[in-house]
Design goal:
It is rod-shaped and about 120 Å long. A hairpin with a 2-residue loop joins β1 and β2 (129-132). It has 226 residues and is mostly helical. The protein is built from eight helices and two strands, in the order αααααββααα.
């Protein structure tokens, strides 16, 4: 019967990949690797296809992150020299001043400080004017540890945006690659399922062979009686 031939062929194909055989772990790892690549590429293409993601917007983020990284590197290297940490002896005053002043002022060398701030007021005097800053909450004080945590995160974000930019440039190629991986994954998963279903296939083969034997017996001519 054709079914028996198909069962036998399937058992022969899957034999090297069943458990305790050398090919089993290799097949499972191959499926796992393809699935991981497929999922990562799917996530990447989903990011590319978002309405607010364009080559221009990604390039702007890359530029901004590059500037952030450069600033963080500088802050870490010059941490003790930054004006931000020497504007006032009182930490609460430093928090308030950090909320009011531009980052470029806070990043000045401490040698630029002419007089320490000793008390705060609701009015911030700027040149010959004054601004009511009472509604602005104090900023958290930046520590060296904070900067050292932010730096690797900024670098990771930069890597992600550069990968995204590369994917935008190669979108069609990436989409074809995803389709190819999807096809490979379906084929490998289907084969792995056959390997897992070997006990069922063996049972079906045995049942089919028994049916063949029964049919063969019935088809034999009865002995001639004299």
């Amino acid at each position: 019967m054709k079914e028996a031939e198909e069962y036998q062929k399937e058992l022969e194909e899957t034999f090297p990949y069943q458990k305790k055989q050398l090919g089993h772990d290799g097949l499972e790892n191959e499926v796992k690797t393809i699935r991981t690549e497929f999922n990562e590429l799917t996530t990447l293409l989903t990011q590319i296809n978002r309405p607010n993601v364009t080559e221009t917007s990604v390039r702007q983020k890359i530029k901004s992150l590059g500037q952030d990284i450069e600033q963080l590197d500088s802050k870490i290297a010059r941490f003790d020299r930054l004006a931000q940490h020497h504007l006032a002896a009182d930490p609460d005053l430093r928090r308030q001043l950090s909320a009011y002043l531009h980052p470029q002022v806070l990043s000045l060398d401490k040698s630029h400080i002419q007089r320490d701030v000793t008390q705060a007021d609701a009015l911030l005097t700027v040149f010959d004017g004054a601004i009511d800053v009472s509604s602005i909450p104090p900023a958290p004080l930046e520590t060296l540890e904070d900067l050292k945590v932010r730096l690797p995160q900024a670098k990771s974000d930069l890597d992600e945006q550069e990968t995204l930019l590369d994917a935008i440039a190669q979108q069609r190629q990436k989409e074809q690659q995803r389709r190819d991986l999807e096809g490979q994954l379906k084929t490998k998963e289907a084969f792995l399922e056959k390997v897992r279903q070997r006990p069922t296939t063996e049972r079906l083969l045995g049942e089919t062979q028994e049916q063949i034997e029964e049919l063969t017996k019935k088809s034999r001519p009865s002995p001639t009686k004299f």
